[in-house]
Specification:
Elements: E1 2-8, H1 18-30, E2 33-39, H2 47-51, E3 59-64, H3 66-78, E4 85-89, H4 95-99, H5 106-112, E5 113-126, E6 129-131, E7 134-137, H6 139-145, H7 149-155, H8 158-167, E8 174-179, E9 184-189, E10 191-195, E11 217-222, H9 230-239, E12 248-253, E13 255-260, E14 265-268, E15 271-274, E16 278-292
Parallel strand pairs: 1-2, 1-3, 3-4
Antiparallel strand pairs: 5-6, 5-16, 7-10, 7-14, 8-9, 8-13, 10-11, 11-12, 13-16, 14-15
Helix pairs in contact: 1-5, 6-8
Length: 297
C-alpha cells in the first residue's frame, strides 16, 4: 500500500480538522493509501517533519493556506524530495488553490482528491528560498502579512480588507530597480509584486494572463498615486484590467532582480520575511499537484 503524509498547521487548532482528517482517510484509503498525520510547530513550521522523514511518502497533503504550502515546498526542495502534493485549503486567501481548480471548501477538496492523477506547475526561487507563487514589496502587501492569526480566524478575508483600509492613506514610497534579461528600469513605487499566478490576495484576476504553468514571472509595479486615484486602481484590479492604469508598469520575464534601498520586509506567499535584494526565477513545471474531481457522479 502506498503512503500519504498529511501536514496540518498546528496554529489553526487540532480540533478544527477532525472532519477533514476523517474525510481524507476515507478518500485516500479507497485509492490505496495508508495515511498518517503530522502537525507543524510554531518554531520551525514543517522543517522538523520533513527533516525527520526516514522515507519520503508517495503523496504529501497540506491542510492550510498559502504560507504553509510555501514552507512545505521550500523544505521539499532543500531536502531533494520530489513527490506529488495535494492542497486542502483552510487559509484565508488560498490563491494557489483558486487558480488550480482546487475546491475552496476543504471537505469537498478532501473528497475529490485524485491521488493518482497530477499536473506540473511552476515554482519560484527567490535567492535560495523556494516559494509557491509570490513575492511582494511595499508596506501595502507587507501589512497583509502582519495580520494576526486571531483576526484572520475571526474575520476571514475581511481581515485583509480592514488592513488595506488602514494602510491605503499611508503608502510609503520607495525606489525600486527591476532588472531582467532584456530590461533594466529604476522607478518610484508603492507596490511591487512578482507572481506566477493570476490570483493575489484573493483577487483572482489581478494578473489575468498569468497561468500556473506558463513558465513566466508576472511583474507588476504601481508608482506613487494620489488618494483620489486609488479607487480607480482598485476598480480596474477587480475587473482584471489594472495594467490599463497609467501608474501601473507590467512586464513578464523568466527571471528578475529586484533591489531597493529603504524596505525592511517583504511578503512571500502571504508570510512576512526580512527584506533582501532578490534574484527571482521561475522554475517551470517543477512541482506535481494532484488533480481534483470537480464533477463527481
Amino acid at each position: 500500500m502506498k503512503t500519504a503524509l498529511v501536514i496540518i498547521n498546528k496554529k489553526s487548532g487540532k480540533e478544527k480538522f477532525t472532519h477533514i482528517k476523517e474525510t481524507l482517510r476515507q478518500t485516500l484509503t479507497a485509492q490505496g493509501f495508508n495515511m498518517t498525520v503530522n502537525y507543524t510547530t510554531a518554531d520551525n513550521g514543517s522543517q522538523g517533519i520533513i527533516t525527520e522523514l526516514n522515507k519520503a511518502p508517495d503523496l504529501l497533503v497540506i491542510v492550510d493556506g498559502d504560507g504553509t504550502v510555501s514552507d512545505v515546498i521550500n523544505q521539499l526542495y532543500l531536502h531533494n524530495i520530489n513527490i506529488p502534493i495535494a492542497i486542502i485549503p483552510t487559509g484565508t486567501t488560498n490563491d494557489l488553490a483558486r487558480v488550480n481548480d482546487v475546491p475552496l471548501n476543504p471537505i469537498k477538496a478532501a473528497e475529490s482528491i485524485q491521488a493518482h492523477s497530477s499536473k506540473k506547475i511552476d515554482v519560484l526561487k527567490i535567492n535560495s528560498f523556494y516559494a509557491s507563487y509570490l513575492v511582494a514589496f511595499g508596506n501595502f502587501m507587507t501589512s497583509f502579512a502582519r495580520v494576526s492569526t486571531n483576526n484572520k480566524k475571526r474575520f476571514g478575508r475581511l481581515a485583509y480588507l480592514f488592513s488595506a483600509v488602514k494602510i491605503i492613506t499611508h503608502l510609503k514610497k520607495y525606489r525600486v530597480q527591476l532588472k531582467t534579461d532584456i530590461l533594466d528600469i529604476e522607478i518610484d513605487s508603492v507596490f511591487t509584486i512578482v507572481s506566477s499566478i493570476s490570483s493575489v490576495g484573493s483577487l483572482e484576476k489581478l494578473l489575468p494572463t498569468a497561468k500556473a504553468d506558463d513558465g513566466l514571472l508576472h511583474i507588476l509595479n504601481i508608482s506613487p498615486v494620489r488618494l483620489f486615484e486609488v479607487p480607480k486602481i482598485l476598480y480596474l484590479a477587480l475587473l482584471g484590467r489594472i495594467t490599463e492604469h497609467p501608474k501601473v508598469t507590467y512586464l513578464t520575464a523568466k527571471n528578475v532582480s529586484v533591489s531597493t534601498q529603504s524596505l525592511s520586509s517583504m511578503n512571500i506567499d502571504g508570510d512576512l520575511h526580512s527584506y533582501k535584494d532578490s534574484d527571482i526565477e521561475v522554475l517551470e513545471h517543477h512541482i506535481s499537484l494532484v488533480e481534483y474531481d470537480t464533477n463527481p457522479q
